[in-house]
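Entry:
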Amino acid sequence: MKKNIIWIIALILIIVMLGGLCFGYYKKATLKVENPIVTMEVENFGTIKLELYPDLAPETVNNFIKLANNGFYNGLKFHRVVKDFMIQGGDPSGDGTGSPKLSDLYGNDDENQTYKYSDGTEAKGSDSYTITGEFIANEYNKNTLNLTEGIIAMARSDYSSQAPTLTTESYNSGSSQFFIMTSNEHTNLSGYYAGFGKVIEGLDVVKEISNVECKAKETSKENSEDAEVSTPVTDVIISSVSVDTKGVNYEMPKTLQPFNYMKWLYAQYGLTYSK
């Protein structure tokens, strides 16, 4: 009789332990992980807060988080502002031609440090990089985010405007530059750029920036009919950008070797690009 009681007690304890374990796994599986939150301070304008969507564009979000929390965006500016369209920033050159270095991504000031691109090719910290374009046109169907007002997306080059065969190179050319949509009038771009978050506070700040006085780019002729008047007359400085990851450790993004358009162009004429 005594043995039976001991076995019954032991069985009850096992059932309780298994129940607790199963509940723990259930809770972990069903617990909603909070999305990362960006705080962007813009000098003389105010604060913009954005929620990022790692489930839709994981590599893009990983890349942005690493750069932001390494201080890469601090002191850069919104160099391109197109009214009723978007505001664009994140270029270290300040004119739309720049890109980050691997040392910026890894937060290491040593530009001679050796790294590897995702394909195993060795590179130095001074070398630039790009990431894969996470959008439908690039055969990435997970990102269904529409580019509506308040959406933040990764900017990229458009080499295909020079040569239609360079579509893939264009799609995978994003790195640090981003833009925030200021209207719902350009949703036709959805599926061609990687949207990866949305403004949750400070849309009024975004709107105020979108209304700053602009001039034609210095590289274009101001009186030309096709000149884009999108360079702010007064610099719009991004004082700081930081991301609260809500305790989640986001990985390094997979890095690609940047496409060298000039090298490609020279090769079309049988020439060697030496720069």
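The helical segments are 2-30, 58-69, 102-106, 167-171, 203-210, 261-268.
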